[in-house]
Amino acid sequence: MSFVGLGAKVRALPSCRWSRRPSVLQQKQLATRPRIVFRGNSTSASVTEAVKEAPKKAGRGFRRTMIGTSLAIVLIGGYFYVTDTRASIHRYAVVPLIRWLLPDAEDAHHIGVSSLKTLYKYGLNPRERGSIDDDGALATEVFGYTLANPIGISGGLDKHAEIPDPLFALGPAIVEVGGTTPLPQEGNPRPRVFRLPSQHAMINRYGLNSKGADHMAAVLRKRVQDYAYAHGFGLHELAEQRVLDGEAGVPPGSLVSGKLLAVQVAKNKVTPDSDIEAIKRDYVYCVERVAKYADILVVNVSSPNTPGLRDLQAAAPLTAILKAVVASAKSVDRKTKPYVMVKVSPDEDSDEQISGICEAVWNSGVDGVIVGNTTNRRPEPLPKGAALPPKEQPVLKETGGYSGPQLFDPLVALVARYRSLLDQGPSVSAAAAVTAEPDQENVPVVETPAVEKFTPKVLFASGGITTGKQAREVLDAGASVAMMYTGIVYGGVGTVTRVKQEMRQVKKDE
To answer: Can you tell me which family this protein belongs to (predicted)?
Structure first.
């Protein structure tokens, strides 16, 4: 063997390494590499298809994102719109729809209360947005409190104290709940509520249907307990008492700064009209149960649907009842005591009747008067000279209390008369101011004793108020608060906000 041949073999060895079987490591590496199988034009077609599919998928993803975003914006925008009392849908769509779907006005009332209660529970209730009252333009002083505005919601809308908080959210400074009676009572048989849409009026003969004072007290107490727990006072009797004693910095009834809760009390239908002592016990029973949770107690002696109730507006029986209520209110276990007001009828409008009521107010120590209530009269249709639609003419013959815009003009005059008489002070002081005329020489003149200072009585006005201009008129006539009921039924949940906006405009135009 020559060395030349050997050298050739040695030089050939490196090239032979790559022709040998791959190692295990190389097999693994090769196994992980992607395999491309060439089958005619299939590879190029797949690549082309993938390239075309990519923008389609991207486009579908973009469209889904846009649709989702748009839907979210619509839902959020719809939520803020529908839950805002300024939304016109409440007045021009919801109210007519309810009237169409629910011909029976009492059914509509029940569903309205139930809906507000449920919506409030889930934060979906209509509410006044934007801190409208923060400018202080409508602030007013009542019973030493600075109220956010002079608008209230009358009793009857929330008969069983189920929705005071949803009603406060609509913007009034005062909400009146009730009336409540000592024992539960069904009221009058149905149907007992009737609409007069052409007049934006109603006739009702509910008859003070009530679940009883004990039930209302339990509902109001639970509300205070929930507030105490939510605001860090705890869940025990001491926590409740601390809130009632004002440690939360809010009125103990409303639990809302700048607002007050009024609770209306009345007697049971079965209590004999001639038994004043029994009637007094009825009112005192209610006061002992609910007064602890009220800023204002309203003594209802003016419902036209409880036989004999309006007879209690005579001076003697009214004085006896009011004295009993005031004494009971002053004994409430709370640092601040509830104020007491009496609700009187617009039908008791003779000079003698008004004087007798004012005398009873002064002699009993009551803090104010709510003028008035529904009327047994049937006012002429508005506008003057108009005729009622044929469907509404039979409704006018129904028994019950009439409420609506027709009550407004008489209300303004009645408020002015009460304001004038109440501002004169108690007649006892006036009677003491006797001046003796000398009938002979050297007989000294008896000097008139100084009239004692007195605290003016507060007046609330209720009856036919539907606009900001009308609210302004009753306030100018001497009322401190303008209360609404039927106006809200026909105007929807945005009525209070609208009326306050109109009041601001009236004030700017002055």
So the answer is: Belongs to the dihydroorotate dehydrogenase family. Type 2 subfamily.
